[in-house]
Design brief:
The complex is a heterodimer. Chain A has helices at residues 2-17, 20-43, 49-67, 69-77, 79-84, 90-109, 113-122, 127-154, 158-174, 187-193, 195-203, 209-232. By secondary structure, chain A is an all-alpha fold. Chain A has one domain (2-232). The longest helix of chain A has 28 residues, at 127-154. Chain A is globular and about 55 Å long. Chain A starts with a helix and ends with a helix. Chain B is an alpha/beta fold. In chain B, 35% of the residues lie in helices and 29% in strands. Chain B is built from eleven helices and 14 strands. In chain B, strand 4 (55-60) and strand 5 form a beta hairpin. In chain B, helix 3 packs across helix 4 (106-119). Chain B is elongated. The relative contact order of chain B is 0.13. The chains are: A mainly alpha, B alpha/beta. Chain A binds chain B through residues 2-3, 6-7, 10, 13-14, 17-18, 77-79, 81-82, 84-89, 234, and chain B through 45, 48-52, 70-71, 73-74, 76, 78, 80, 82-89, 93, 97-98, 100-103, 142, 145.
Chain lengths: 234, 312
């Protein structure tokens, strides 16, 4: 496990040494800030609901851009060979890279805490949904990060990794909004698969075990998929 | 030290390594020789745990690759072909990262990094990013990466490919310096390099071992046949052949293309246990020919390699 931590800190440092981190964070803050405050004063309500409700639509673009290089780049330049011949297990590598992407999502969300602080001065802010919202955002970001890592493991081309990751994440966001396309028999299943539905529950401040289990199992399935894909390459 | 048994690797239908058996003793420098695509890199990748064998087993010390890969990885330092490093990292950060992953503690880590920098000549470039280094420097960073925690076994895949002659000599010196106390496996397709650095040479072709032994043994094993080459001035080919053919031990005389006008280049094939050189010298001294060159050659590694690996 110590190995996973070394890989985690290396990957996290890599984000902030290169310009990727700053570009992604700036874009994220610009888009969310713009859309949030464009309607905030019209709504005249002291809450962050419209901010959180944007995240399932924005994360599918932002997070695969963060995770796309994690395996693709290593496979492409061949450093994966050097990494895997160090005394590390594949599990440590995947966990380390995943934790780095989770940490990145958390760091990206930190500046938005200032919205909550500002709003609490303007009106009577209910902190319950805010805490729930951030918890949900971290869980959602982690799940999409795991999906992005899976996409990155499948190809040595970063652009393909980005597109594959984005398509899967976007599907998870939208699938429960398109229930009318599916036959009645599988409706509950499809509804449960949608990430948006679970995220909304948590971001309303209702922390239900079922939603948390949904995110944790998505993370597990995606990372396990990445493990299988990388194992197959040996 | 390293015990390889019936090691086989298939890529789909393609058989890259075909039932190789190999025993490597402690302290040996083993050169793995073969044409491109012979299965050298695949073999090394299986020994280092990057690839899984289709069948067969590798035992290193008391560990088996199938069960105990993590322990084996701790024993091995590996430099893949052309040293694929992270481009964005500083040389120091990279070595620091590798040292941490390999489990070195703080003070030991610093001292190892310093001594590796000295051994591999990296002291002046520790603050540069890996991406801006030349190929030779990258190769040296790769060597430092492989040796950072002083592993017992070093596996080097074509450590000198693509380097200029000066860099080749530098890398070779480093290998020889560390080879005194380590077990080293290196692959190459440069024969002079194998001859210069290795104790033992294994030639593989199409995934199979076709020769195994020390350089001398390989040359001996290729037959007792030797050649003596002569360069004479003032002699005709027929005349010379008449005189020299009768000497014991000389089995054939061929004429080679002259480099300069007036000279006669002869290639005498020597068979049997007799050394014909004294009689050759005396015979030539009795004539009025001028002797410019007189040289005996064993079969070169090049000839052996070509004989063993060429298609019939």
């Amino acid at each position: 496990m110590a190995q996973a931590l070394h890989i985690f800190s290396k990957e996290l440092k890599d984000y902030f040494v290169s310009p990727i981190a700053y570009i992604v964070i700036c874009i994220f803050l610009l888009i969310t800030g713009w859309f949030f405050f464009a309607t905030f004063f019209l709504m005249d309500q002291a809450n962050l609901r419209s901010f959180f409700s944007m995240l399932p639509l924005i994360f599918p673009f932002v997070i695969p851009a963060v995770t796309m290089r994690l395996f693709s780049e290593e496979l492409n330049i061949g450093s994966y060979e050097m990494l895997m011949t160090l005394p590390v297990s594949l599990r440590d590598v995947i966990v380390g890279k995943f934790l780095a992407s989770v940490a990145f999502v958390a760091i990206m969300l930190v500046p938005t805490l200032s919205y909550a602080v500002w709003i609490s001065f303007m009106g009577d802010l209910d902190w319950g949904p805010v805490v729930g919202g951030y918890l949900g955002a971290i869980l959602l970001g982690s799940a999409y990060g795991a999906v992005g890592i899976f996409a990155s493991a499948t190809t040595r081309n970063q652009i393909i990794a980005f597109i594959v990751g984005m398509v899967i994440c976007f599907t998870l966001t939208l699938i429960d909004k398109m229930l009318f396309f599916f036959p009645n028999a599988i409706l509950p299943l499809i509804h449960y698969l949608g990430a948006g539905f679970h995220f909304e529950n948590i971001s309303r401040g209702i922390v239900d075990t079922r939603d948390i289990i949904y995110f944790l199992s998505t993370i597990f399935v995606a990372l396990y998929g990445a493990h299988l894909v990388m194992q197959e390459k040996r | 030290m390293i015990h390889v048994e019936k090691l086989t690797k298939y890529y789909g239908d393609l058989c890259a390594v075909d039932a190789i058996d190999l025993d490597i003793r402690k302290g040996e420098i083993l050169g793995l020789l073969g044409p491109n695509g012979a299965g050298k890199t695949t073999t090394l990748r299986m020994i280092t745990g990057y690839l899984e064998p289709t069948s067969g087993s590798i035992r290193i010390k008391e560990h088996d690759t199938a069960e105990d890969m993590l322990e084996i990885k701790k024993l091995i330092g590996y430099l893949p072909e052309s040293a694929p490093l992270y481009h964005g990292m500083l040389v120091y950060d990279y070595l620091d990262y590798v040292a941490k992953v390999r489990g070195l503690e703080k003070e030991e880590k610093e001292s190892r990094i310093r001594s590796m920098a000295e051994l591999c000549g990296l002291s002046g470039i520790m603050h540069k990013t890996v991406g801006e280094l030349s190929k030779g420097l990258k190769q040296r960073v790769g060597l430092a990466h492989a040796m950072i925690d002083d592993p017992e076994i070093l596996v080097l895949d074509e450590p000198t490919s693509g380097l200029d002659p000066n860099q080749i000599v530098e890398i070779r010196d480093i290998i020889r310096a560390i080879g005194r106390e380590k077990t080293i496996i290196l692959s190459t397709h440069i024969l002079s390099e194998a001859e210069a650095t290795c104790d033992r040479i294994v030639i593989i072709d199409k995934g199979k071992i076709v020769a195994d032994g020390s350089t001398e043994m390989l040359k001996m094993g290729a037959g007792q046949e030797k050649t003596v080459s002569l360069v004479l001035v003032g002699a005709g080919f027929d005349e010379a052949r008449q005189k020299l053919e009768t000497i014991r031990g000389v089995s054939r005389i061929d004429c080679e293309e002259p480099h300069h006008e007036g000279e006669l280049r002869l290639l005498l094939t020597v068979a049997g246990p007799d050394d014909p050189r004294p009689s050759l010298y005396h015979t030539i001294r009795e004539t009025d020919w001028t002797l410019l060159e007189f040289r005996q050659e064993g079969k070169s590694l090049e000839t052996i390699f070509r004989e063993l690996t060429q298609e019939d």
